[in-house]
Amino acid sequence: MARAKLRVERVTKRFGGLVAVDGLSFDVNEREVLGIIGPNGSGKTTMLNMMSGAFKPTEGFISLSDRQISGKAAQTIARAGVGRTFQLVRLLPGLTVLENVVAGAVFGHRRQWGQSAKMVALRMMERVNLNISPNAPITELTYIDQKRVELARALCGEPNILLLDEWLAGLNPTELEAGIDLIKTLQEEGRTIILVEHVMGAIRSLCDKCVVMASGAKIAEGSPEQVLADPEVIRAYLGDEDE
Amino acid sequence: MIRGSFTELLIIAVLAAFAATVPLVANGYWLSVCVTGMMYIALATSWSMFSGPTHYISLATAAFFGLGGYLLATGMSDYQQPFWLMLAIVPFTGAVLAALIGLATLRLSGVYFVIFTLGLAEMIRNLVSWIQNNFLGSRGLYVLTDYTERHIYWMLLAVAATVYMLGWLINRSRLGFSLRIIGGDETVARHVGINTATAKVILFITTGFFGALVGGILAPRYSYIEPNQVFSPQLSFLVVIIALLGGSGRLWGPLVGVIPFTILWELVQTYFPNQTTLFLGVVFLVIVYFLPHGVVGRLEQALEQVRKRR
Ligand SMILES: Nc1ncnc2c1ncn2[C@@H]1O[C@H](COP(=O)(O)OP(=O)(O)OP(=O)(O)O)[C@@H](O)[C@H]1O
Ligand SMILES: [Mg+2]
Q1: Residue B1 and residue A118: Cβ atoms within 8 Å?
Q2: pTM for the full model?
Q3: Which end of chain A is flanked by fewer CB atoms within 10 Å, N or C?
């Protein structure tokens, strides 16, 4: 049987007295799209940050294809094949669109240089439907195009697993539709993806499995239909709205 | 991703060839000004190879420069070693010092890095002075060679040309690209797989290497080496001002800054010897307010506007 591609075991993250992630465990299998959902401040981004190496877990382990990655530096984890985007888009303002994208190909999982790196970057720009001059400055991009650049940069590294932190947030309805379709095509390519999302429609149509977090802990796990019907999940979300 | 063309290399070669003829036509005062200018070109260019892309302002130039000059003088004066042997050794001591500073400051962010480098350079200056005054006070450090200003000039030119070649190669390499990404966003740099610490330390080591080398080359100019003179913090500030004036975003930025600055600096020192610090302050303000990206940045901005209007 296929073993878990990414395994999170009893991971805890404390910031001083605050427990941002509290003993979380879950598995992601090859070619699976896992959704991490939960109210604001429930620890989703913190969990993603530990998977990508931005933070080290206070306790617990994370492994990729049976190799421990928790506690390793972000660059080591990136080279091991973990690609990510950021909740607040992070692009390099002094660089062109192409340079922003090609960074992923030059230093990522497959380290390329020169013409071959450039070809990969151009292919990935096309892959994410970025119809803009490769030499355009990054400052001239619309919001969704900025998100596309970030996604293309992550894809350039040919990651084994892709972490998307609210990639669909902040898009208008038309853009949202295009965005969901784009991620759907990534899923159809057989990629392993972890999505942090608030958009319920996207979760329903994209995720094979969901982990629901509240106050750092896992309160439910299962198919999107299952977890979204779970009374505890509904309570967590409604409770959040009351505040 | 790849910066620096072969045209750029050719321009550098032509400029260097032209610069090499200067001692044939200039002498005395003007040659001495050119030696100073060439020293700043080498120092400011290697400084901005690290600080330009990373935005880490280093005030350690005086430490490297002083180390180079002082060690070379010690070797020649106290141990009767030949000039060339000492000159071959000192850059590596600068590199080692830079590596130690780099490793110690890896986790420091921008502001703390500035303070650390300034503090460290001052500490080294005081330590060396103290040792000299308390234990070695009775003897002087003489650097007696047959080299004249023109030889020193040519040596500095060779170093400056080497710095340019190296900078040009780095700009065309993965390392150069990684530094631009680090300068843009260090978190992104790490997440695309760049070992940011290694890249920064490598570049800082090159500034230490060339700083000490230049310090060693300049030693025969002073004949008599005194710690407070070779470790003078003023040098660190001058190098920063020159690099920022020209623009540290491009390899040839500092070169653009050196020429006007050296001329102005000489004039101020000659006619207003008591106002040099005031002058530096004014130049610094001008840079901060009117030329945040240096003369070169201003030029590029202007070119961009012309292109857009067409
Ligand atoms: N670097 C940090 N230092 C201190 N506290 C932090 C840090 N990062 C996150 N936190 C805290 O951890 C908790 C979880 O934050 P996190 O960003 O993971 O939530 P989230 O589920 O991603 O929320 P959102 O849906 O708003 O993005 C919050 O209380 C937050 O304030
Ligand atoms: Mg978040």
Answers
A1: yes
A2: 0.88
A3: N
